[in-house]
Amino acid sequence: MKRTAEKVLTWIGFGFNILVFFGCILFTLLLTTSKEEFSKALMEENAFSLNEAGTIADIYTFMSMVGLVLTAIYFILCILAAVWIGKKNKAAGIILIVIGALSFISPNWIAGVLWLIAGIMLLVRKPKAYHSNLANDYNYNNDYTRSENRDQNDSGYERNLGENTSKKVDEDPYKY
C-alpha cells in the first residue's frame, strides 16, 4: 500500500520543524547576548522592578532553550518515523502521534497537527482486501475446470480461493 499522503505530511511537518528550530536558535542567541538590554526595556515602562525584569529575562531564555531542545528531539524522531513509513507503519504512527501531541507545548504546533494527522492515518488506514467479482470468478472457474491438463495449467488460483473452487463441474449440481 502506498503511503504517499503520510510521507508528504510528515516531511512538510519536518520542514516546519526546521523553521522553528532555526527560529529558536536565533531567539536564544538574541536573548543571551542582550539580556541586560531586554531587562532595561522592561524596566523603562515602569511595569517591573530590576529583580522582576531579570527574572522575566531568565524565564524567556530558559523557555527558548527548552524549545530548542524539544525541536531537536522532534527533528530526530520525525526523521526516524519518516524512514519507517512503509516498513513499520504502527511504530511510525505511534511516534508521529507522540511528537504531534508533545509539539503543542512548544512553538511547533503547525507541524504537530500535520504529524497527528499522518500518525492517525498510519494507524487507521489498512490495505484493501481482495474483493472478488463473483461473476468473473465463476466464469474463470468454469473455463479452468474444463481444461484437460489441469495440473499443467495450475497457476495457484484454486489454492488462493480455498476449497470451494476446487470442485469439478460434474460434482456441482448447481452449475449451468
UniProtKB/TrEMBL annotation:
The keyword Transmembrane applies. The keyword Phosphoprotein does not apply. The chain crosses the membrane at residues 12-33, 59-85, 91-124. InterPro entries: DUF4064 (IPR025273). It comes from the Bacteria. This is DUF4064 domain-containing protein. Residues 2-106 form the DUF4064 domain. It holds the Pfam family DUF4064. PROSITE patterns: PROKAR_LIPOPROTEIN. Keywords: Membrane, Transmembrane, Transmembrane helix. It comes from Staphylococcus marylandisciuri. Residues 145-176 are annotated as: Disordered.
